Amino acid sequence: MKNVTDSFVSLGRWPSAGSFGLNTDILATNPINLSVVLGVLIFFGKGVLSDLLDNRKNRILNTIRNSEELRGGAVEFLEKARDRLRKMEIEADQFRVNGYSEIEREKLNLINSTSNILEQLENYKNETIYFEQQRAINQVRLRVFQQALQVALGTLNSCLTNELHLRTISANIGMFRTMKEITD
């Protein structure tokens, strides 16, 4: 350590004229060389280093600004997408509710329509049954009337003789004359 301090002290005592030589003592010359190199680097490299640092700082700031702008755009896009999603969910709920109500309405309409059709068919069936009953009753009446008429004609033909026939006609003519006289 003494050599290091001696080399700095000896700087002030160098002869102004004389020989030029190399000092081979590494410990004595190394701090001097380092201080000279650092001084030159600081003096000349200061501008380059500050330019490099300024460029790096500007690039970082630009990247941050761009990132902030992109983040702002992404946040805005996300908010718009959320708004659209909310609107679409509301619209889907409305479609779902409207669809369910439309299905229920159509179901009720179908039930009512089917009920009306069944009621009409029941009425047609009852009318048809009534018509067929009336027709059957009329046919039975007609047949009974025909049979009664045949029996009456048979009875009349077997019981009615010419004399009885003439007396019946005379009695009826007499009743008509009496009725005519009463009315006149």
Automatic annotation (TrEMBL):
Keywords: ATP synthesis, CF(0), Chloroplast, Hydrogen ion transport, Ion transport, Membrane, Plastid, Thylakoid, Transmembrane, Transmembrane helix, Transport
Gene Ontology molecular function terms on file: proton-transporting ATP synthase activity, rotational mechanism
InterPro entries (alphabetical): ATP_synth_b/b'su_bac/chlpt (IPR002146)
Gene Ontology CC annotation, any one: chloroplast thylakoid membrane
Highest taxon, organism lineage: Eukaryota
Subcellular location: Membrane; Plastid, Chloroplast thylakoid membrane
Protein's membrane topology: Single-pass membrane protein
TM helices/strands, residue ranges: 32-49
Miscellaneous comment in the UniProt entry for this protein: In plastids the F-type ATPase is also known as CF(1)CF(0).
Protein's job: Component of the F(0) channel, it forms part of the peripheral stalk, linking F(1) to F(0).
HAMAP family (UniProt xref): ATP_synth_b_bprime
Quaternary structure annotation from Swiss-Prot or TrEMBL: F-type ATPases have 2 components, F(1) - the catalytic core - and F(0) - the membrane proton channel. F(1) has five subunits: alpha(3), beta(3), gamma(1), delta(1), epsilon(1). F(0) has four main subunits: a(1), b(1), b'(1) and c(10-14). The alpha and beta chains form an alternating ring which encloses part of the gamma chain. F(1) is attached to F(0) by a central stalk formed by the gamma and epsilon chains, while a peripheral stalk is formed by the delta, b and b' chains.
The family this protein is said to belong to: Belongs to the ATPase B chain family.
Protein name (Swiss-Prot/TrEMBL): ATP synthase subunit b, chloroplastic
Native source organism of the sequence: Bruguiera gymnorhiza
Annotated gene: atpF
